[in-house]
């Protein structure tokens, strides 16, 4: 059967996602799996290697173990909320509001948002969890004049971008910058990581259909458990060399 390896891959993936195999657990040997599924060893090998490429398994002494799932973040190419992103990758998101307040925009925030320094903005500081573990530390800065009712929204259960949409000013475009930083003392405490551990920092500017900046944010993600998928399209006659 030409697609037997895909059936085996999907079956093993289902077991992993449903807790049949725990993180770090050694899965049965390829010879045992071949006997279980009644297929050849090369068929099992192909299925297992595909799962490894997708981030579900990783090579270890004696075979393959279940990896901590690396969730492809669509931030580089799509404008999706945290809940949509995590929901699409079978995790269980939670959000803790650390601080929500109205403050005057700093010079940097004002410059990014195209508003006057000191203009009122909502500053939202959140810590988000996936499967009960801290996953991303996020700070948003949103001009109050665009969303005067934002203070009444429970952002532990509602997406900020979905709220923009519901309030009649949807976020339709985003510019994002991804860089690597080292964990500071405060980030170590928030994200439960070691000092100097590498982290992803994602800076995002969100715009409406007129190109007006609606939100400026900085998100710090764990490097373990995250990857970022980027699709590049050639425009015009081709890439410059």
TrEMBL record:
Name of this protein: GntR family transcriptional regulator
PANTHER family: GNTR-FAMILY TRANSCRIPTIONAL REGULATOR, MANNOSYL-D-GLYCERATE TRANSPORT/METABOLISM SYSTEM REPRESSOR MNGR-RELATED
SUPFAM superfamilies: Chorismate lyase-like, Winged helix' DNA-binding domain
One of the GO biological process terms: negative regulation of DNA-templated transcription
Residues forming coiled coils: none
Leader sequence segment: none
MF GO annotations: DNA binding; DNA-binding transcription factor activity
Domain HTH gntR-type: from-to ranges: 2-69
Keywords, alphabetical: DNA-binding, Transcription, Transcription regulation
């Amino acid at each position: 059967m030409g697609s037997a390896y895909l059936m085996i891959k999907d079956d093993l993936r289902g077991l992993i996602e449903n807790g049949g195999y725990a993180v770090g657990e050694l899965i049965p040997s390829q010879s045992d799996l071949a006997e279980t599924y009644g297929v050849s060893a090369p068929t099992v090998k192909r299925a297992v290697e595909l799962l490894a490429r997708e981030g579900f398994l990783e090579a270890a002494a004696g075979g393959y173990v279940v990896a901590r799932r690396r969730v492809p973040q669509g931030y580089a190419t799509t404008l999706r909320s945290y809940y949509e992103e995590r929901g699409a990758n079978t995790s269980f998101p939670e959000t803790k509001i650390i601080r929500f307040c109205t403050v005057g925009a700093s010079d940097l925030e004002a410059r990014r948002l195209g508003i006057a320094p000191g203009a009122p903005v909502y500053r939202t500081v959140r810590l988000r969890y996936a499967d009960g573990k801290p996953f991303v530390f996020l700070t948003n800065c949103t001009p109050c004049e665009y969303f005067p009712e934002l203070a009444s929204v429970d952002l532990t259960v509602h997406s900020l971008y979905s709220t923009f949409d519901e309030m009649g000013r949807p976020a339709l475009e985003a510019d994002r910058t991804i860089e690597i930083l080292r964990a500071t003392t405060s980030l170590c405490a928030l994200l439960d990581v070691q000092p100097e551990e590498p982290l992803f920092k994602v800076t995002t500017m969100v715009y409406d259909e007129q190109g007006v900046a609606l939100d400026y944010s900085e998100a710090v993600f764990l490097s373990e458990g995250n990857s970022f998928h980027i699709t590049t399209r050639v425009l015009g006659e081709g890439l410059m060399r």
